[in-house]
Amino acid sequence: MKNTTYDKTDFLKQGFIAGEYEKCTFINCTFANADLSEIIFWECRFEACDLSLAKLSKTSFRDAIFADCKMLGLRFEDCNKFGLSISFDNCILSHSSFYQLKLKNTIFKNCRLNEADFSQCDLTNAIFENCDLAGATFDNTNLEKADLRTAQNYSINPELNKIRKARFSLAGVEGLLHRYDIEIES
């Protein structure tokens, strides 16, 4: 499929046709619990869609944009890693996993990433603009040059993660010192 717009389609009821989707737009579509395995999304845009718990085994997202989407419990590490390029704006990505992915320059804007797993992920130059990272896991994660100045509720252990030249706000520095059980006063 190429240059096609899908509006208010429930792919759980209708089923999703496997194949390659190029420059397609999905608006208010339901993919929740759908099997999107081995499907290629090339320069596609997802707006106000529900992709919660969709199966992503060898799914390809190349220059995919997600805006205002509900994406609970997705296992992005199951995606095809070749050419993986995604960005998120105002999405709910809680309980999703990005384990061991290379997500250099990825933009997370106004997203809820509660309990998300970024273990062993390469987030070099990533941007977390106004994101809620409560309970998110950063373990052996590369956050070099990442921008977390407006992110909230994160807890990142500088001894277990690469944070060289990462950017944090003064208010957010507590998220780097949390493990030391110290009190910081303004």
Describe what this molecule looks like in 3D.
The chain is mainly beta. The chain folds into two domains: 87 residues, 3 Solenoid (Pectate Lyase C-like); 94 residues, Pectate Lyase C-like. It is 4% helix and 17% strand. The chain contains two helices and ten strands. The strands form two sheets. A seven-stranded parallel sheet has the order 1-3-5-7-8-9-10, with no helix packed on it. Strands 2-4-6 form a three-stranded parallel sheet, with no helix packed on it. The longest helix is centred in the N-terminal third of the chain and has 4 residues. The protein starts with a strand and ends in a 9-residue tail after the last helix. The mean pLDDT is 94.
Count the DSSP helices.
2
Helices and strands, in N-to-C order? EHEEEEEEEEEH
* CATH top level class name of the largest domain: Mainly Beta
| Class of secondary structure makeup | mainly beta
Q: Biggest β-sheet, characterized?
A: 7 strands, parallel
Q: Total number of β-strand segments?
A: 10
* Helix percent band: under 10%
- How much of the sequence is in beta strands? 15-25%
CATH topology of the largest domain: Pectate Lyase C-like
Any key phrases for this structure?
Pectate Lyase C-like, about 5% helix, about 190 residues, mainly beta, three-stranded parallel β-sheet, 10 strands, 2 domains, seven-stranded parallel β-sheet, single chain
